[in-house]
Each structure stands twice: as C-alpha cells, then as structure tokens.
Amino acid sequence: MNTLTLGMRRGGLEIRAFFRETDSLVFSFLFPLVMLAIFSVAFGNGQSISTGPDGAGDSISFAHYYLPNMLASGLILSSLQTLGIAIAQEREDGTLKRLRGTPLPAVSYFLGKIVLVLVCSVAQAILLLLFAKFAFDVPLPDDVTHWARLVWVFLLGSATGTVLGIAISSLPRSGKAATGVVLPIVLVLQFISGVFFPFFNLPTWLQIIASVFPLRWMAQGMRSALLPESLVVLEPAGTWELGMGAVVMTVWLVLGLLLCRYTFRWIRADQR
Amino acid sequence: MTNQENATVAVTIRGLIKRYGDRAVVNGLDLTIHTGEVFAILGPNGAGKTVTVEILEGYRKRDGGEVAVLGVDPEHADNQWRARIGIVAQTATDAAELTVDEIIRNFAGYYPNSRDPDEVVEVVGLVEKRSTRIRKLSGGQRRRVDVALGIIGTPELLFLDEPTTGFDPAARRQFWELIRTLQQDGTTIILTTHYLDEVEQLADRVAVIADGQLLDLNTPQLIGGKENRHPQVRYTDRNGAQQTISTNRPSQTLRELLAEYDGEVADLELVRPTLEDVYLKMIATAASTTESLEVR
After folding, report:
1. What's the rounded Cα separation, in Å, for the pair B12 and A115?
2. Between chain A and chain B, how many beta carbons pairs sit less than 8 Å apart?
3. What gap in Å lies between CA B147 and CA A99, rounded to an integer?
4. Do A16 and B97 touch (CB under 8 A)?
5. Could A98 and B94 be called an inter-chain contact, meaning their C-beta atoms sit closer than 8 Å?
6. Could you tell me which residues come within 8 angstroms of residue A108 by beta carbon, excluding any fewer than 6 positions away?
7. Low-confidence ranges of chain B (pLDDT < 70)
8. Of the candidates B82, B94, B102, which has its C-beta nearest A94's C-beta?
9. What is d(CA A12, CA A32) in angstroms, rounded to the nearest whole number?
10. CB < 8 Å to A104, chain B
11. ipTM of the complex
12. pTM for the complete prediction?
C-alpha cells in the first residue's frame, strides 16, 4: 500500500480510537459546544453586545458574539490540544515505538493525525454552527465572501494548530504529565485571545501579548466571517486585520514545522 | 565475510559498546546469530540484554563496535529493512480503544508480504476476543496481540522480549508450538526471557550475558560447562543437616555413602541440575568475580 492509502487507514483508526475515549470527547470535542451554551445562557439574559455605549448602536446577542470565538476555541482544542496530549501519551504507551519498528512511513502516521484533526474539527464546527443557529437563533452569513473567510481561517488555523500540537507533544517529560502541560497553555491562550472574554474588554497590554500568538487571529478571523460588518469597530484596530492574521498564523505554521523537524522523537529520551 | 557466510548469518555483533553516563551497560559484546536458529539471550536484570536487543532492533544507538542485522546496520535502517523484521517488545499499553481485529488488520497493511490477519488471530489464540477492545484484555491476551503484531509481516527475523509474561501454562505451550512452526518456516528468532524452561524447550543456542559481557554461549544442554552440570547427591546427615555433593562420578559417591550409613539414608536423592540451577550458578560466580575485582 502506498503512503497516502496507509495515511487514510491510520486516520480511520485514529478517529475510531478518538471517539471511543470519553476524555478526549468531552474535553476537546464537546467543550466549545458546552461553553457556547453556558455563555449564551449566563450572559444572554436580554443583554447584548453592541457597538455603542449602553446598548446604543448595532447590537447582537451573546450567542452570536460567542459563536466565532467558540469556533476558534474548537479549532485549537481539536488540533493543538488533542495532538499535543495524544502524541505525548503515544510516546509513553509504546504506540510510537511499535510503529517505528514497522515499515509504516512516518508521513503516513502524520497523515493519520491530520485526517483525525480535520474530521474532528469539521464535525465540531458544523455542530457549533447548527447548534447556534437552531438553539440560539444566530444568523449565519448568506454570502460567499464571509463563508470563504470562514474556510480559509479554518484551514490555515487547523494546519497551524496541528503542527504546533505535534511540536508541543515533545514538551511533557511523560505521558502522564502531558495533560498538565498542554491544558494550561491552551487555557491561558483562550483567556487572553478573546475567546472567553470579549477581546475589546481586555487591557491593551494583554491584547499586545495575545497578538503574538495565533489564537487571537483565529478568533478575529472567525469574527470577520460570522459577525455583522458593523461590529468591526469593536476590534482593536477598527478593521478585521485579515492580512496580519494570515501572516501571524503562517509564521507559527512554519515555526511549528521547523520545531517538528528538529524535536520530534519516536522514542522517549530515557529509552534511546 | 564471504557470500556464503552472509546467507547463513542473520546477526553479527562485534565489540558492541553502549554507555549511559560513564557506565558501560554493554561492554565489548561479540555474537553471531545464524539464519533459522532460535537464539536465546539470558542474563540478570541490568545485564544489558534489552539494551543489546534494542540496538539490534534499531531503537537505540551504540557507542562502539559493529552491528549487522540481516546485512544492514540498524542505525541506518530503512523501511525496507523494517519490513523484514518483527518485534515483540516489552510493556506496551497502546491501542487500548481499538479491537484486536482492527489493530491486526491495520498493521497487516504496512507490510509488503503480510500474513492473513484471520490466520494470525487464530494462531495466537484470540479468535474469541477478536472484537474485544484491547483495554479489556487480560495481561496474557494483550501479550498475544503483541505477538500477533510481531509476526503479521512474515518477518525473516523475529525479536521476542519476554514474550510469555502473563501467559497461563496452557497458553505458553500453545505459544511454544507457534514458535516451532515459525522456526520450521525458516524464521530466525531472538528470544530474551526469564523462563528457563522456555529456553530449554525452544532455543538452539543460548548466550548468557552479565555486566554487558558474554559469559558463555552454547546449546541449552551444554551451557555453563561440565563443572556446573555435575549431578548432585543430596541427603540429610546424622545431625539432621542437609548435604549436597556435586560429583562427576555419582555412582562412586553413592556407593561410599551407602557403605557409610546402615539402612536408609534420609532424604536421599540424585539430581541432575536443571538449566535454572546451572544458570543461577553461572550468574552467582560472575557476580562474586566482579565483586572481588572491585575490592582489588
């Protein structure tokens, strides 16, 4: 079998294993859905997010505002968090060592992971969009421009998250430590990137720190796709800054690839 | 090395050295393993067995010496080489959420010349568990999955590291049959184990390793040398103390003993040392030699 076919078959296996494991299902796949429900219900109480002071100007519901942010959250959870933890555990439990002793091409292994991330994040995004639309009456875009934005932010974002997940899996010293290392990083990123709190509410210095990392730009890109254009005034620059977002995500993508290239190990350090 | 020699040699190890810090865990090991033989490696924990085997498997890098496995240096091995070997390593807990069938079928796809997955499931005795998730298997059943994944690619050379840990006696015998079948098909097998009866049953030759060096290399029947294999006359003497006399002339010893005692000699037995006795004696001798060297 060729590298591509083997990669697809690895992907099938990965997906099966993923959805059978309750931990990963709850903490990365369903988490954004749960958070969207909580934010919408908790803050939703007749309130809204508006462009002017005290509800003046254009306004949208909390569910509407949080939908793009939860899409960005799902993107980072399904890629960076899932892979960062899973691969560290695979290094511990012997998966990687066993595969290294077979003729499976390394590329096929990574293809399998990419398939897993794509299937999970696409399914998650569709669920989020449907959930927001039918449970909270969030209007979805009706033009190609906005859907195209969603698609490219989604693709570039998951590519970046995937390579960063593979790279970060080398950080924990053991499989057991993986959750403890990866989870806080992702959590802090979400807090400072405007995923949990509206980005415009964060102090400027924190906005600047967040701008170094890709999640801020994924969230802003998603907002550019799903929020009314008038809401752009709430962004720090007063524009969606899509060009800047693409640049930051691409830089992290390349950085992640380089990190993978030089730090990825099949065998644990104490077993070499 | 001539071509003819090449065809009959599966593994060559010359002056192998592996250090961790300034401790050499493998210290100048030489071994030649022939094609088609079952070769057992014995040694106490920490003797360098697993490290040696993992160097052969391409997992670990060496610090000195030459190694050729199926004519290839494992440090620079490619996937073509990996298709020719099979590995049953120690303690893997992977693929917990997959079923026996799923993982075996998936692995079958990795090899150019794989066995029929159904057949493999059958020979390792997992037919009834084929749809069970690996997480729910017992230790011994899990180990059989490892064995199945080791042989699915029809390897020329199979590494078995403690393969029968957790097996019940019936499963072990079934496993031995499998190994004999593989050997008849021409598979070279490198076996590390703590079960000496397994070595007696399966191995053509045994290497005993201690402190990263070869202590002895021979058939299971001859390993350890004559002195360690002398029969033992055991009895309880008049003072109630247990006595053991190692002798290469047991009839003579018995005659003298019977002449000395009137009537029954208490607890009298004539015992031929098992491989385990021989092995333990070798290891004890090696350890005391090392100690006395260290004292000096």
Report:
1. 41
2. 77
3. 14
4. yes
5. yes
6. A3, A4, A6, A7, A10
7. 1-7, 290-296
8. B94
9. 24
10. 79, 110
11. 0.86
12. 0.87
